[in-house]
Amino acid sequence: MNIIISASKQELGQRAASLGANLVREAIAEKGEANIIVATGASQFEMLSALIEEEIDWSKVNGFHLDEYIDLPIDHPASFRKYLKERFVDKVKPQNFYYVDGEKDPDEECTRLADIMGKHPIDVAFVGIGENAHLAFNDPPADFQTKVSFLAVNLDDACRAQQYNEGWFNSLAEVPKRAISMSIHQILQSKHIICSVPDERKSDAVSKALYGAVSPEIPASVLQNHQNTYFYLDQESASRIPQSSNDE
Fold first, then answer.
1. CA distances (Å), 212 to each of 29, 75, 116, 188, 217, in order?
2. What is the pLDDT of residues 97-125, one digit of tens each?
3. What is the pLDDT of residues 140-171, one digit of tens each?
């Protein structure tokens, strides 16, 4: 586990994107293509903006994303498919991008995605963590035992409140209560994990995830068990951890 603390969100995004781009280029050079996971949410704005500016042969990249609300239309402002299409896919035009479609039957969609992902071992996963330390939409207590790649999950109140407070919905009642999420097990199969986490509101989750016990109650704490995880923090999100933890 590696911890890199930046002076600002913009610097965080640039540094995370730079490492990620290097790893994607290495995968392409080694095997002719790269498979990546791309996260969504406010925490990924700066990283994605920097990543799309990197020199990468995107025609040799296959992409997946982590999660999507169940029964939320793709034209809703909070749709993660909409977010990624507009902010990433339409800009870089990867070889393939496999969306999580929350408007389909959840069980069938989980099976469909698992079949595709089984053929595309992930080289680089770009992820974030939530205010409740969720990883993807694996809210506490997360299922650390399941070996399925995707699963239908219930969203807890803290997770739904975060989505509302970030401005994606007009009211808390409007936030869906269920989603399709990539599993903890599947995320950990990634060769490299780049976790971008800015903002003071994430500082408690960051501290617990990095220095607390590995526990389903702190889902992101499981990343302590993944040797090639890189935590990119800013001064605010790192405010509750020892500054000596900075690896650079």
1. 38, 39, 34, 18, 10
2. 999 999 999 999 999 999 999 999 999 99
3. 999 999 999 999 999 999 999 999 998 999 99
Fold of 2-211+226-238: Rossmann fold (3.40.50)
pLDDT in tens, 205-233: 999 999 999 999 999 999 999 999 999 99
What does the H/E/C string look like for 129-186?
Answer: ECCCCCECCECCCCCCCCCCCEEEEECCHHHHHHHHHCCCCCCHHHCCCEEEEECHHH
| Separation in Å, CA 73 to CA 78, 140, 166 | 9, 26, 19
- Give the pair of three-digit tokens for residue 67: 């999660």
Residue 60 φ/ψ, nearest 5 degrees:
-115, 20
Q: With b meaning 16 or more CB within 10 Å and e meaning fewer, what string describes 179-216?
A: bbbbbbbbbbebbbbbbbbbeeebbebbbbbbeeeebb
